[in-house]
Write a structure and sequence with these properties.
Elements: E1 2-6, H1 8-15, E2 23-27, H2 31-36, E3 40-42, E4 48-50, E5 57-60, E6 62-66, E7 74-78, H3 84-89, E8 99-100, E9 106-107, H4 112-118, E10 120-121, H5 133-145, E11 151-152, H6 154-166, H7 174-185, H8 190-199, H9 202-206, H10 208-211, H11 228-241, H12 246-254, H13 273-276, H14 278-287, H15 292-309, H16 316-326, H17 332-347, H18 359-371, H19 376-380, H20 385-408
Parallel strand pairs: 2-5, 10-11
Antiparallel strand pairs: 1-2, 1-8, 3-4, 4-5, 6-7, 8-9
Helix pairs in contact: 5-7, 5-8, 8-11, 11-12, 11-17, 12-15, 12-17, 14-15, 15-17, 16-20, 17-18, 18-20
Length: 409
């Protein structure tokens, strides 16, 4: 029995990056031998075991063969005869197909170290094209390592293009796709993930609503970058620069989908794109079964982001309706994330990345003023039921009028 560290642990150590997850492969062992030594079996698809003391995962060396569609369409074979090289060749990228023993002796049959040094993301074998999930994985790795200068090898991008055109991407489950998408969006350069998907034709398959934004112009006075797709990528990049959570990044990706529906004869204006985009945002949310908080914020940002930009001009009654829509009294964090998404939208414009966004503090102040209205005095005056609701609304409107006068003069 020989045990090796494989995959990301080896890759990141060689890159000088922190090693978080450690995957181990066991060569020359049987399931019975692992059980005898106290390892606990997990996973129904192939033999993976938990170490009896550390709880870390150890997988028997295995080969795989395509047997159906999609990510799960594989038959695995594990036995003591499977070599380390045979196990490594089924992996996606050469930089993930290296192994090392406890003395850090490197096994690198597919030249992963060479590709690390050349900053290339390259597939290990033609079997890469059998697994559609690898399109998303490679795009995610491109987003993760782009700051280090990594790019996708042309021949790998070509295989990704073939996968995108094959219909295999449609076989991916929403859960598997969302796992890769959400992880990619939380990288330091999430816009690279979208760029790579677009370059290989996968964006058109997975998110045609986002793909449709590229080539759609916007008024240059408001958007010096002009192209709506380029703007969306910039907004996403700003969300990463400002360390925004997943909810905000997802909303930033989807906020302008309605502009993809504007007839060409109306370009570069996009009248009512906020409302038109809601059905598209809802469709993308449902396609990937995004978590509820991501779904809700994306829809709210899509509908109200121009309200955010025009916050200083809004009438107190419109401002109150905005606050009510977000339920700022019970869910203040969601409104804070809306403000963040609006600010990222404003900064995601060419040359305006450092521009101040006074609307943010103004909206926070408005929410605070509305929340400051006390209910108890109204109860003491005898208001109840619908009348109480109307009385609270009147007092909040009065508070917002006073706030606007004091804040803006």
């Amino acid at each position: 029995m020989r045990i090796y560290k494989v995959g990301g642990a080896v890759r990141d150590r060689l890159l000088g990056l922190p090693v978080t997850d450690i995957d181990r492969v066991v060569v020359g062992a049987t399931t019975e031998e692992m059980l005898t030594q106290g390892y606990r079996p997990v996973g129904a698809d192939f033999p993976v075991f938990l170490h009896p003391k550390t709880g870390e995962e150890y997988a028997l060396a295995r080969t795989e063969r395509k047997s159906g569609r999609g990510y799960g369409g594989f038959t695995f074979h594990a036995s003591p005869e499977v070599t380390l090289e045979e196990d490594l060749i089924r992996r996606d990228l050469t930089i993930n197909a290296m192994a090392e023993d406890d003395q850090q002796n490197l096994t690198d049959p597919y030249h992963g170290q060479r590709d690390l040094q050349a900053r290339i993301l390259r597939h290990v074998s033609p079997a890469f094209a059998e697994d559609p999930l690898r399109v998303l994985r490679v795009a995610r790795f491109a987003a993760r390592y782009s700051e280090l200068g990594f790019t996708v090898a042309p021949e790998t991008l070509e295989l990704m293009r073939q996968l995108s055109e094959s219909g295999e991407l449609e076989a991916l489950t929403a859960e598997r796709s969302w796992k890769e998408i959400s992880r990619a969006l939380m990288e330091n350069q999430p816009q690279v993930f979208i760029e790579v998907l677009r370059a290989c034709g996968a964006l058109k398959v997975l998110m045609p609503e986002v793909d449709a934004l590229f080539g759609v112009p916007q008024p240059q006075a408001h958007h010096p970058e002009i192209d709506t797709g380029a703007h969306t990528l910039s907004v996403l990049q700003q969300a990463a620069v400002h360390k925004q959570p997943l909810t905000v990044r997802w909303a930033c990706l989807l906020h302008d989908l309605g502009k993809g529906l504007t007839p060409e004869e109306e370009w570069p204006r996009h009248i009512a794109h906020e409302f038109k985009g809601l059905k598209l945002i809802k469709a993308v949310n449902e396609r990937f079964k995004a978590p509820r908080d991501c779904q809700e914020l994306a829809l709210l940002v899509g509908e109200y982001h121009t309200h955010g930009h025009r916050a200083l001009e809004l009438k107190p009654s419109t401002l109150l309706e905005l606050l009510q829509s977000f339920d700022v009294y019970r869910r203040p964090q969601r409104f804070e994330e809306f403000i963040a998404a609006c600010e990222m939208d404003a900064r995601g414009r060419k040359g305006l990345e450092e521009r101040n966004y006074p609307q943010a503090d103004y909206l926070r102040g408005a929410a605070s003023a509305a929340r400051g209205v006390a209910v108890q005095p109204l109860l003491e005056k005898g208001f109840k039921g619908p009348e109480l609701g109307e009385a609270i609304k009147r007092e909040r409107l009065k508070a917002l009028k006073a706030y606007k006068e004091s804040a803006l003069g």
